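Example S7 (structure tokens).
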């Protein structure tokens, strides 16, 4: 997999390419103004590869956990009071941004053991330390969602650990708004959809049985969605808009060889691929709900945590975007939310006893009160959700 790093310097302003209908944000665009010819570096160095291999090894070592699966609620023989064991929650991509803030918020309560499922073990360890998380409240396990083998290995290690699974949070994501060419996962899927959707799809499917087995009072599968995948909002109408079309690219495997790298079969566009992947995330959550909620009691939900404009998600955007995006969201759209606040919101979706409704897409109003939000027509299209489920099953080797 070719890892792509952030553009280091912005270059000249340019008008949108001729012949392209409408404004496009594809070329490192900034609030409707297009930047061209930015500098991009390919970090496929052996140093990075070595680091990843090391992480894989250490991840497995650190994956060992207590093999006791105590019942969720026990009654003390001393005073007869009921006590709830610590919940176990896996959070993917907990090494930065929203995932880290959520891990911290949950760990701080002392009621949760957080399994930080991360592709970079050392980064995750440093992040947990600097967030002040105490060791007994978290473990780190290696997971690279851009490799289905890694997903399977992660699931095997988790199952072997004997730890129950009460909540799974699919949070990790990559966003490549400046990429001119697609990059690919280990299996050859376009990277954004491959990581954000297919990696999480396999992970959730393989861990569903563990969630089913959990005797915790409320077991949940949470998938992080976004406003930008919902075309019923202003943010979702900023080009390029999410659109999965007739799924012909997904059906072909998104490999760019005999098929398009984009779900709808169109030309590669990194920003669109990300938004498409978020639509898949939100559709997947609803399909899980339809297929499994009634029989299993598991709560399936997605959310838009607010615009956390300071996170690493924008690392591949040009520096000027990264500079102006936070004040733009703070003072103009007023959609800005800090990492800490967003972490509290996601932690609420994980653990708040009042947020047990399944099949729901949560959002928050200005005073940070949660409400059930409306998804766009495409992001709530049942037939599309079913087709994506079936195509994804084939791509990840489940069918
Ligand atoms: P960050 O970039 O800070 O966090 C993303 C995390 O995903 C990082 O920990 C990253 O790991 C991890 N990740 C990326 N690729 C892989 C992979 N192949 N395997 C495992 N982990 C991987 O961004 P955010 O915190 O902003 O994003 C978190 C979620 O929030 C995403 O789902 C995003 O779509 C969503 N979201 C974000 C919004 C925002 O405004 N920021 C708004 C709406 C939704 P590493 O640290 O190693 O890079
Ligand atoms: Mg958006 C209420 C308006 C609103 C909100 C809540 C967001 C959230 N954005 C809004 C409006 C606008 N944005 C407008 C009017 C513009 C054009 C000037 C605009 C532009 C813009 C860009 C170029 N916005 C962006 C980008 C990105 O590259 C981000 C993106 O699409 O990432 C996929 C982004 C975002 N705006 C948001 C949010 C939450 C994002 C990023 C994160 C995400 O959806 O996961």
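Recovered sequence:
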């Amino acid at each position: 997999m070719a890892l792509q790093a952030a553009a280091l310097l912005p270059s000249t302003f340019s008008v949108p390419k001729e012949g392209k209908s409408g404004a496009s944000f594809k070329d490192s665009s900034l609030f409707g103004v297009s930047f061209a010819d930015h500098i991009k570096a390919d970090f496929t160095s052996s140093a990075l590869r070595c680091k990843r291999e090391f992480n894989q090894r250490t991840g497995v070592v650190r994956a060992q956990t207590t093999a006791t699966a105590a019942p969720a609620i026990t009654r003390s023989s001393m005073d007869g009071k009921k006590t709830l064991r610590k919940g176990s929650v896996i959070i993917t991509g907990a090494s930065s941004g929203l995932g880290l803030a959520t891990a911290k918020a949950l760990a701080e309560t002392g009621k949760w053991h957080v399994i930080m499922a991360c592709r970079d073990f050392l980064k995750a360890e440093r992040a947990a330390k600097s967030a002040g998380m105490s060791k007994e409240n978290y473990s780190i396990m290696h997971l690279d969602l851009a490799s289905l083998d890694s997903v399977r290995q992660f699931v095997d290690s988790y199952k072997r650990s004997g730890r129950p699974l009460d909540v799974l949070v699919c949070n990790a994501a990559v966003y490549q708004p400046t990429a001119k060419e697609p990059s690919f996962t280990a299996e050859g899927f376009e990277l954004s959809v491959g990581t954000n959707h297919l990696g999480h799809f396999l992970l959730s499917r393989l861990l569903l049985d563990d969630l089913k087995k959990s005797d915790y009072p409320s077991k949940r599968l949470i998938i992080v969605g976004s406003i930008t995948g919902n075309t019923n909002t202003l943010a979702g109408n900023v080009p390029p808009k999410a659109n999965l079309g007739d799924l012909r690219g997904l059906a072909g495997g998104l490999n760019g060889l005999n098929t398009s790298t984009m779900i709808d079969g169109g030309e590669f566009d990194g920003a669109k691929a990300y938004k498409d992947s978020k639509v898949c995330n939100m559709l997947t959550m609803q399909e899980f709900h339809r297929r499994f909620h009634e029989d299993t009691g598991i709560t399936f939900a997605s959310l838009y945590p607010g615009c956390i404009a300071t996170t690493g998600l924008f690392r591949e955007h040009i520096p000027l975007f990264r500079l102006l995006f936070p004040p733009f969201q703070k003072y103009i759209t007023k959609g800005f939310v800090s990492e800490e606040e967003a972490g509290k919101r996601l932690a609420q979706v994980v653990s708040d006893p009042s947020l047990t409704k399944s099949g729901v897409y949560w959002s928050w109003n200005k005073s940070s009160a949660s409400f059930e939000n409306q998804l766009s027509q495409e992001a709530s299209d049942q037939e599309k959700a079913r087709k994506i489920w079936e195509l994804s099953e084939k791509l990840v080797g489940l069918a």
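Notes on this example. Residues 92-93, 95-99, 118-120, 123, 143-146, 171-174, 195, 224, 226, 304-305, 307-309, 311-313 surround NDP (ligand 1) (CB under 6 Å).
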